[in-house]
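Fig. S4 source data, part A: sequence.
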Amino acid sequence: MFNKILIANRGEIACRVIKTAKKMGIATVAIYSDADKNALHVEMADEAIHIGPPPANQSYIVIDKVMDAIKQSGAQAVHPGYGFLSENAKFAEALDAAGVAFVGPPVGAIESMGDKITSKKIAQEAKVSTVPGYMGLIEDAEEAVKISNEVGYPVMIKASAGGGGKGMRIAWNDDEAREGFQSSKNEAANSFGDDRIFIEKFITQPRHIEIQVLCDSHGNGIYLGERECSIQRRQQKVVEEAPSPFLDEATRKAMGEQAVALAQAVGYASAGTVEFIVDGAKNFYFLEMNTRLQVEHPVTELITGVDLVEQMIRVANGEKLTITQDDVTLTGWAIENRLYAEDPYRGFLPSIGRLTRYRPPAEQAAGPMLVNDKWQGGAPAGDIAVRNDTGVYEGGEISMYYDPMIAKLCTWAPTREAAIEAMRVALDSFEVEGIGHNLPFLSAVMDHPIFIKGEMTTAFIEEQYPEGFVGVDLPDADLRSIAAATAAMNRVKEIRRSRISGRLGNHERHVGDTWNVALQGVNFDVTIAADHDGSTITFADGTSKRVTGNWTPGDQLADMLVDGKPLVMKVGKVSGGGFRIRSRGADLKVHVRTPRQAELALKMPEKVAPDTSKLLLCPMPGLIVKVDVEEGQEVQEGQALCTVEAMKMENILRAEKKGVVSKVNAAAGDSLAVDDIIMEFE
């Protein structure tokens, strides 16, 4: 076995590989850019080597710099993670020439399957059903428009070397095809150093389901079930689960066997993923093969017990698989939510800055293990597993130079329903402050009826949130639970205030039992009956709720039980007294007042937000790539105004309505902060 492995990556996946390497007794080497000198993966590794400036095209994807780091460290093998150089055949060739093992597939497999155009041709030759499209390279935007018309709108414009949603656009007409081609080409060049583009038919109402394969260099290959990856935004996966709630055993077997056959046809040896589009009739179509470890691999590990990173290392060391297809059992259900540094209230635009608070939920180990060289899938019935794969820490910074993913939160349970409920509690328990993040949106998805029924497609987000995410309005039952909990919490706070020292004599303060709780535009009159173990909150209609828990004023997380059911809330302060409560995707201002205070509060005027309707504000910290209009120009609704780049993604800002540009305050090359004024309108 190898003595030392270099991880040619950063962030979450570098930390993930280091954990398994340490478990196997293998020393690890991290590489880092200027922006990552204090990163978690650098701290976790046994040694670390600096490789250049923050931009990936000056550090992490510069093969010569990575090879120099390998030489300095004396590493015998390299794990590439995902992204960066993970599917770069030239990098694999350089490692082979240097006598260093690549923890991934052979060069030939990378070249034939890592390239999306070539892989589709191979799949077609192997009689695998593929999505219609143009398999050749496309030279310019006008050729892209011509091909799009031949294929038929809508079309998907994709980077040949792409992944992770980078270099991908959907076009519904000629104008979008022109714009999408250029943006995809730019993103592909910046992210992968390869700007080749191809076009395929975009199938509406599809499900994105992928098969995890594992092959060795001795001709053995298995599949480890599937992952449902249909909930996506801009072709970037957000929620994944295993198994899929849609597939039956026959379809799973057919997809798995086809995936393994395809992998073995190209001499594949390592962990890899074959992606399919599956329609409502369970017909499946090959999309592509990712010749690397997938971001969402933990859900497969949780239901099978197979440590995919360990298996990749063993295969790279020339070992045979000790697992046969008969050993693979799918036990229980696993769900992964990707926590991104992006603001769902601002159209999911990237957010950067310092993590002033980062407290993930406590991890709980449960599940499968290797017993007598056989993997025993699953965990004892009733156990819950919580896993958080991350590459950040409290006080660290989220950089503008890299992917905005902060962590991958996973839960496992014996049933899908239990796994979803475990995820709801875990999301509510996850504390993140200092940046915009998508925790509220993830919580909303976990409660969405379509997700609960398992009926989602890849169009889920755009169909269910056509105007973007604006928060969640909780149903009456949830509001009553929060009202009861905050009333009990307020009583604790008031009792503490009544016991403050240094008071004037004969001015004893009594805490009353009757209160008014206002939240989400609703008022509840409640009466509190407290005892040693908790409080009983009685509403005006005679119903009551029992509240227990351990919350102390100043705690930013309240872990309560309401009628025996867990209720986890993030707790903050609001001006004028009360609580800022965040739970189940909702962000609420909760005021607990005496009856007289509530009466007076109704007479207070509401503060009106400033009018920004005639301003184009920068929605995130970023770089102005292009300004498409000039002063005095009339613009139409939906017209492109400018392009802002952040975290390797180009974002086109469009006019919300018809108007005339009165002033342009920014130019190409300018770096702007959130809410900086880009242009003004008459």
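Fig. S4 source data, part B ends here. DSSP finds 17 helices and 41 strands in the chain.
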